[in-house]
Amino acid sequence: MERSPGEGPSPSPMDQPSAPSDPTDQPPAAHAKPDPGSGGQPAGPGAAGEALAVLTSFGRRLLVLIPVYLAGAVGLSVGFVLFGLALYLGWRRVRDEKERSLRAARQLLDDEEQLTAKTLYMSHRELPAWVSFPDVEKAEWLNKIVAQVWPFLGQYMEKLLAETVAPAVRGSNPHLQTFTFTRVELGEKPLRIIGVKVHPGQRKEQILLDLNISYVGDVQIDVEVKKYFCKAGVKGMQLHGVLRVILEPLIGDLPFVGAVSMFFIRRPTLDINWTGMTNLLDIPGLSSLSDTMIMDSIAAFLVLPNRLLVPLVPDLQDVAQLRSPLPRGIIRIHLLAARGLSSKDKYVKGLIEGKSDPYALVRLGTQTFCSRVIDEELNPQWGETYEVMVHEVPGQEIEVEVFDKDPDKDDFLGRMKLDVGKVLQASVLDDWFPLQGGQGQVHLRLEWLSLLSDAEKLEQVLQWNWGVSSRPDPPSAAILVVYLDRAQDLPLKKGNKEPNPMVQLSIQDVTQESKAVYSTNCPVWEEAFRFFLQDPQSQELDVQVKDDSRALTLGALTLPLARLLTAPELILDQWFQLSSSGPNSRLYMKLVMRILYLDSSEICFPTVPGCPGAWDVDSENPQRGSSVDAPPRPCHTTPDSQFGTEHVLRIHVLEAQDLIAKDRFLGGLVKGKSDPYVKLKLAGRSFRSHVVREDLNPRWNEVFEVIVTSVPGQELEVEVFDKDLDKDDFLGRCKVRLTTVLNSGFLDEWLTLEDVPSGRLHLRLERLTPRPTAAELEEVLQVNSLIQTQKSAELAAALLSIYMERAEDLPVRGEGTGVLGSLSLPLSELLVADQLCLDRWFTLSSGQGQVLLRAQLGILVSQHSGVEAHSHSYSHSSSSLSEEPELSGGPPHITSSAPELRQRLTHVDSPLEAPAGPLGQVKLTLWYYSEERKLVSIVHGCRSLRQNGRDPPDPYVSLLLLPDKNRGTKRRTSQKKRTLSPEFNERFEWELPLDEAQRRKLDVSVKSNSSFMSRERELLGKVQLDLAETDLSQGVARWYDLMDNKDKGSS
What we know:
Elements: H1 28-31, H2 44-73, H3 78-110, H4 112-118, H5 129-132, H6 140-172, E1 179-185, E2 192-199, E3 207-225, E4 230-247, E5 259-264, E6 269-276, H7 286-302, E7 308-311, H8 319-323, E8 329-339, E9 346-347, E10 352-353, E11 358-364, E12 367-370, E13 381-390, E14 397-404, E15 411-419, H9 420-426, E16 428-434, E17 441-452, H10 458-466, E18 478-488, E19 501-507, E20 510-513, E21 524-533, E22 540-547, E23 553-560, H11 562-565, E24 571-577, E25 586-597, E26 647-657, E27 664-665, E28 670-671, E29 676-682, E30 685-688, E31 699-708, E32 715-722, E33 729-737, H12 738-744, E34 746-752, E35 760-768, E36 770-771, H13 777-787, E37 796-808, H14 827-832, E38 837-843, E39 850-860, E40 893-897, H15 898-902, E41 921-929, E42 934-943, E43 955-962, E44 970-972, E45 983-991, H16 994-997, E46 1001-1009, E47 1017-1026, E48 1037-1041
Antiparallel strand pairs: 1-3, 2-3, 3-4, 4-5, 4-6, 5-7, 8-13, 8-17, 9-10, 11-12, 11-14, 14-15, 16-17, 17-25, 18-21, 18-25, 19-20, 19-22, 22-23, 24-25, 26-31, 26-35, 27-28, 29-30, 29-32, 32-33, 34-35, 36-39, 37-39, 37-40, 38-39, 41-42, 41-48, 42-45, 43-44, 43-46, 46-47
C-alpha cells in the first residue's frame, strides 16, 4: 500500500505496486514525484506556505501559555495549572487513540484484500469473519447495495430526526424547547457487512441470518439548544457487532415474509468522536462512562431480549409474540468452585507472593451476576446458583470471568465461554472448564430447564425445589411473561390535564417499570416483562399505573398467580378492570406462565401414588402372599434415627437502629431516609418482613417459624435492604450460628450489621422442642393467642411428622385413571394415643390396599414467651372433631397452627364454673402486652344467648374503649349465623400506655341483626369491665355474665 508524502519519505520505485488496480482512485499527491533536477529544493510558493505553517504552529503553542499567565495574574497556585495540564493531556491521549483507531479501521475497509494478504500470518482476530469461519459467506453484493442506498438513507435519517425526534425532545423538558438538529450527514463511508451466516431453521416458518456488521463512518450530527447557546455533536463513529435477522412467519402470499425481527445477540462495541460541548466526554473516566450509557440505551432497544420488529403485511397475527417471544428455555447455573488459580497479590514490593481474593462474573447476554469474594484462596468454593433466560439457540454464550478483588483495579484471572446449544443437548452438564487468558479451572453444573404449559408438573417441581439448597436466591419453579399492551380511559390529572402514564409491575421484592407515554389517557406500551416465580400458588402480581412523576396513582390491579394455573395453556389474554381508578379504566395484558422442568435421568422427583416410580409389589413372583417365599409383613415402620428429632426455630424480628440512609432526591442533593425490610434464609427457606417506610430505626415485630435439624454448620442469614423501585439497596447483613441457639435454647441480642458503616438489628430466637404430651396443648394455644403479632402468620402449636414406609394390595388400573386411594386420619386419635404417636397399617378409603405409616405429633411449648398461662379443663374426645385432614402424601413435616387445633378442641364447661345468667355469657381474655405497649383482647365466644324470636340470632360482639366513643377505639368481630353459642377466637389491640389503659373501661356488647332489610341492631346483652379492677398481667380467659343495658356484668 502506498503512503502519502505527509507520512514520511517517499518510497522507492521498488516499493510501489507494479500495476495499481485503479490509479484514478489515488489522490494526486500520492503519485507526485519530486523532480530530481531540483535538488529537492521547494519552489517559492511552497517556501511561503511552510513559513506560514511554522508561524501558525508557534502561535498555537503561545496560546497554551495564556492559561499559565492568567493563573499567575489572579494568584492561583501551580497546582491548578498542573491539574488543567493533566486534564488536557488525558483528553488529548483519548482523542488521539480514537482517531488512530478510526484511521486503522478505514484503512482496513478501503483495501481489505491487500491487508488480508499481508497479515495472513497474524492473529485470526485481524481477519474478516468470512476468512476465519468457512460457514460465513462474504456477501460483497450486499455491500454494493448498501453503498448505493446509503445517501438516501441519510435523507431519511435527516427527515426522521428533524420531524420526529426533535419535537419529542423539545416536548420532554421545558429547558429543551429550542433544541434543533443543525446538521445531519451520514457521510460517504457506508456500513459494511463483513460476513453472512445462514442458520438451519429451528422451525420451517422462519429464516435465521447472522450479519457481521462493521461501521467506521464519517457521520456528522450537530445539535444546538439556542436558549443556552449550547452546541454539541458527533463526528465519526465505530460500531461492530453481530446482528441477527429473523424472517418470520413465512407465508404463502407476497411478500412471502410476514415480519422482520432484528437484534444484537451480544452488546456491540462502540467508539464515538464528540464535538462541541460533548468534547468533555473524551476526558478520561467520562469517556468510558458515556460510551457505557449509550450502549445501555442501545441494549434497551436492540440487544436481547429486546428486538426491533418490522411488520411487512397488515393485520399480522401474534405481533406481541413476535416482538417478545417466550424464552427457548432456562439455564440454572451452579457456580461451584475453581482450582489452580494464579496468585496476584504481592507484598513487600513483590518480594513476597501472596494468594488471590477471587470472585466470578457470570454473563449471558445482558444478564450479569457477581459472586461473593473468597479472601486469600486459590481454590475457592462459591456454591452459588443463578438462573438465566435463553432466547436464541444457537448464538448465545455463557461467559464466566474470574477476577482478583483489589482496592484499586481488579486483576483478571481468566475466562471461559460455552455455547448454550451444548447445554441444551446434554440437559445436565457438570464439568471443570479451563480458564482462557490465565491458569486454573472453574467448576460449573449447568441444567437446562424446559418450559412446560402443564400445571400438573408444578407440584413435582415444588417438591424437588423444596430439597434444593440454593443461594443467594431459592430456585424458581416457573416463569411469568407479561405482555403489557394498552390502557383505556385512565383518569385525568388536576385541571383536566392528560397524564403521562407508566406502569410498575411487582412480584414480591422484584419491580419492573414500563416506559412513559406522554399526554394521553389511552396509552399504548407494547412491552414485555419477565419474572421468575418461586411458588406461583401463593404469589401475586401487583400492577400500579402511575403518572411519570410517580406521585399520582392512576389505577391498580392485584392478580393472584394461582388464577393462571387453572387457565387454558396457562395463558390469560384479556382486559383487566383497574381499581382506585375511573369507572371505565381498564388495562389489556397477556400473561403467560410456564413451568420450569428439568427432564434428566439424573433427577428423581418424589413419587406419589399412581405415578411411575412409586413403590410396587413384585408382580412376577407367582407365590406372592405365600408365607414360605415372602418375608413376614412388618407390623411397625422402621424410620431412621433422625426421624422426629427436628426442632422448630421461632425467629422474632423486633427492630433495628442507626440504619444508613440510601434514598436520594434531586439527583442526590437532598438526603432522605430508607424504606427497610429484612430477608432471612435458613434451611433452604426464605422469609421477608414488611417494609417500614422512611425510617432509620424501624420496628417490624414479626415472627417466623422454620423446621430445623441438628446438622452442624447451619447458619441463619439475615440481610436488611432498602426498598426501591428498581433495585433494592443493601443496608447490611449478619449471621447467627444455629448451634448457638440449639444449645442454649434462647437468644435475645442486638446484632451488628456487617459490610455497612452503621446499623444493628434486634433478634429474638427460641428453640421449640416438640413434646409428646397433650396436657399442655390448651396452654400453648392460649399463649400463642396472646403473643401473636398482627404482621405475622398464626403461630404453630404443634409439629406433625409423617413417615410413609410402604403400601400393599393397591388396585391395578390403567395409566392416567387417577388416585389409587386416600386416607383420612383424625387428629383426635393422635391426641389420645400413647406418646401422641400412631404406627401401624391403615386401610385406604377405597377398601383396596393398605399403607404402613407413622404419624407423630409434638406440642411446641415456649419457655420464653413472657406470658404466664392458666390452663383449664378440656375434654379431647373424638366426637368433638369436625375436620379430618387427609394424609395421602406431601412434605414429611407439617406444623399445626393454633386455629387448626382449636377447631379440633371442644370447650366443655368445667364443673367448677358458675351457670350462665339469663342473657348468656361471653368469654374474654384481657392482657397488656408490655413489650408492644398494647392492650390485647381476645373474644373467644358466647354461650346460652337469649332467643327472642322464632329463629336463633346472628350474633357478633362489639367492643368500645370508654370514655372514647369514636370509631378509633371501636372493634367488632365477624358475624355468626343462627347460633346461640358462637365461637369467634378473634384478637383485637389498642396501642396505649399501661397507666392510661388502667383508667379506661371496656364496653362489650353482643348484638344481632334485626333483619336483612333493616340497619337496626338487637342488643342481646352487654358487660362493662373496669380495667383498673382487672389483672392485665395474667392474660386469663374468663366467662362474663351478660346484662341488659342498665346493669354491669360480672364474672
